[in-house]
Structures
1.
Amino acid sequence: MTDVTITTERILELIAAYGAEPGAWPEDERAAATMRIAEAPNLFATALEEARALDAMLQMESPLEPSSGLSDAILSAAPAPRPTSNSLLGGLTSLIFPQGVRWPAGAALASLLMGLVGGYAYASTGVGYDQADAAYFAAFGIDAEEDWVVME
Amino acid sequence: MSGISELDQITRAASGDRAAQAALVNRNMPIVFRVAYRMLQDRAEAEDVTQETFLRAWKALPDWQPKAKFSTWACTVALNLCRDRLRKKKPVLMDELPERVDPELRPDESLESQQALQRIDEKIAALPERQREALTLCALEGMTNIEAAATMDVSVRALESLLARARRSLRAGLGADMAGER
């Protein structure tokens, strides 16, 4: 027995929408509908016969298949396997430190590089030499330009 | 699906698992293609829509929310793409519809059944767009009413109304053929 009650009109609606095959009807109404039809088959005979004829024609439809290359084309655009963060970091580390990471040596190398780069940048401006020369000449009371002229 | 849930398969596909991607495509691509073909009546266009649907799927998978089955989601995307294409096409009068020849017909099928099949194809193709969608999803692809309604973004009652009208139109158009089926 089913708890769902169903009217004659509703069964005719189901047949009109989904056809004669109970398997195509909504699951929650199927049992009640089939039971009601079994109780009064004459009420639904015409509707079922018409629906069955159309169902048979729709079933004649042969399944269409896409071309064989479509699947490959779709899969070629699928996401590639993601590298894990460990393997990415590991690869980068081994590239920079092929002999393995040694932090004290790495820190010393970094300090040396920073000193060289900083010193070069400071020297390349030329400002430092002018200031140093001016301080030197001032300390010894030399007017640099005049002395050079005198010396000539 | 032999012990692997669809969500597991989607998660694996999103992370680049080739086997999971192939399984997802093999299981869902045919229905997407058939729905697109029913709507567009053109194999090349249906394949374009199928490909575009899966391109969108690949982008969507990393953030996938299991609110619906993948096939429902994919058919919704495909239907939207079909609607866009149909809107861009100029209307074709019924007299101008080209005769379709189904290359899948087997040689042993009788001429009569071939002609009947062609007539039903034409009648389905001539249905209004929404009725054709409803009939394709429910009657031809076997979706449940809830899945089909979700795919079309309509209520179940609205779906039933579309189905009933589609079947009524087909019965009226195929009267003589249907008499032979009884």
2.
Amino acid sequence: MARLAMAVTALRGRIRWSRGVVLLIAGTYFLLPMVCSVVFSIDVPGQGVTFDAYTGILGADGFLDSLTLTLELAAATVVSVLLLLVPALITVRLTAPRLRWVIEVVCSLPLVVPAIALVAGIGTVLRWGPDHLADTPLYDTFIAIQDPDFPVVLVLAYTLMALPLAYRTLDGGLAAIDLKVLVEAARACGANWPRAVLQVVLPNLRGALLNTAFLTLALVLGEYTVAAILGYRPFAVWIVGIGGSQAEMSVAVSVIGLLVTWVLLLALATAGRPRSARTKTTAETS
Amino acid sequence: MSTDLSDVGAPAAVRIAPALASGERGAVRPRRRRVPHWLGVAPLLLFAAVVFGVPTVAMVFGAFTTPATAPDGVQATGANMSASLQGAYLTALIGSVKLSAVTALIATGCALPIAHTVVTSRFRLVREAVLTASGVLANFGGVALAFAFVATLGNAGVVTGRFDLTEHGWSLYSFTGLSVVYLYFLIPLMVLILTPSLEGLRKQWREAARNNGANAFRYWVHVALPILTPALLGGFVLLFGSAFAAYATAAAMVGSSVPLVTMQIADALSGNVLVDQGNVALALSLDMVVVAGLVTAVHLPLQRRSARWLD
């Protein structure tokens, strides 16, 4: 018996030790490129340590425009992803379970059509505008969604591209709560439908909603393919544009972009934390 | 009748009874009838039909027709498709599939221990830090990632210079190099995908296995992994899709000698190499869709069969 206990303790010790190694290796692999990027951007051969790459960013040509455009696109995309998916998923779980596979297939479709293939298709469709639709009211729509100041066509494409991950995240969140019981309880207490969803379901889905927003946000911040091929100039396209002539600055901007994303996500994560922590404590004490 | 009962808060059994009698599968139905089933689902389906459907149809149509600029106008043809499956285009397609499969497999293998460490960690800080980091890194793909690796392991990179890696035969612009870069966003992505499933593994299952005399290894092989299989498969397919579709990373790492189908499509679309290859680009896109579709089709039935455990 004592032997068994020792074996268990030894096993425990080994497991704890192995998890340290796992984190160490992973940490090294994931931190190294960031450290090297910083070194690369401040340690210029022949000039020594200089922060020119960073100080020059704000004044760089097109920086602010591309950043603003990207942030606007990101906000619009996050809103449309949530507005499309949340009602659909709640409906499917509550009243139309037979439609579930339809939603799953629809949300998985973008996985089957890569961004580059999608943009090849979109480009073809957009060329129909001047070619075939010049005399119809649809033509104005075609022009409007391609407005260079705010290309709606990019929001549409990004929303579609965000669906697979957003679906998985939200669906996972919905699976973790007892939606039926929650809604029935709310309805039994006299809440109408919108109230039951807004005040009972959504707060319980907070984590999943925030995660979905993260993923979508990050997708838009880094998206290059669709924008580049359709000829728009959001952040990622701008970085590649300067990469050829100013390698240090493009790496510096990448570093800053990463830091900003990180801070943003941390802020969102902290915003979502107090409630979940509270729920956990109540669950443990009860 | 049933509506009245549920309104006065009758016991569940009484409310369910009429529903069952009338052949209803769900439990408490009557109140919900007022909300049409399709109302919540319709916007999503409409959106998908327009934004996904129209470009896809245009792509398939273009893949099998001659371009409008051709002498005879738009004609049905198989030439685009056969051109897309020959020579450099075929090499690129195979290169993409190989790179995606290898990186997705390695990433799945690396992410499982990380996700497990995170889920079972005693320290909430570790957990939150790793998950937030994964959220950032999984989407760090594309341009910024390419620049970070060029700065690290590229020809003028910091690590390359410090350790004279070039003399040891290292090149970031090779298959191995590109794999190392891809893993950087694939592993965190898999950690994000696996964490909820690992959290779904109940403590009781592990305890039950231990009570029945299973050690950690047997618990993993006979209980945890079978339950996790759908998540792992689903994750693998997602990773394959991400790697297969990746364009920005390779595009920003100019000088990459690895042939990738996405690069070929972009070149053909922009007419960089040959003029008027637009419809071949559409045919190549269709090839990509077929490959990605086959991979997805393989995992769907498997996933549905065993997904019930973690649901």
